[in-house]
Design brief:
Layout: E1 6-14, H1 18-26, E2 31-38, E3 45-54, H2 58-68, E4 71-79, E5 88-96, E6 98-105
Antiparallel strand pairs: 1-3, 1-6, 2-3, 4-5
Length: 111
């Protein structure tokens, strides 16, 4: 396969980072759309961004996402093991950031 001239980046971001991520990516000239999604572990609402861009803009797009999609600590309440009463115990969980997949695109058309 020859080197692709376009990429499809798939970025999963927290819903609260969606607007900032969209603005940051649009400022790079990337074409994008998003799909609502949910995380499998915590069940939190996410957005999956589908980002089409030339290969040479990949690092710019990744930097834009890195600047606006920050990790944060949230607390979840879990019942204590072995306790006869379900007394919740807050547990810190790191959420946020972005998970990004880069896929080569053999053919790209705008219709």
């Amino acid at each position: 396969m020859t080197n692709p001239i376009h990429l499809l980046l798939m970025a999963i971001v927290q819903e609260q980072d969606l607007d900032a991520a969209t603005r940051a990516l649009q400022s790079t000239g990337a074409s994008l759309t998003y799909l609502s999604s949910a995380g499998g572990f915590l069940g939190r609402r996410n957005a999956t961004l589908l980002i089409g861009l030339p290969v040479e803009k990949k690092e710019t797009a990744l930097k834009a996402l890195q600047e606006v999609c920050r990790q944060r600590v949230e607390y979840m309440t879990l019942p204590l093991e072995g306790s006869p009463m379900p007394m919740p115990s807050p547990v810190p969980v790191t959420v946020g950031g972005a998970t990004v997949f880069a896929l080569p695109v053999e053919r790209f058309e705008q219709i």
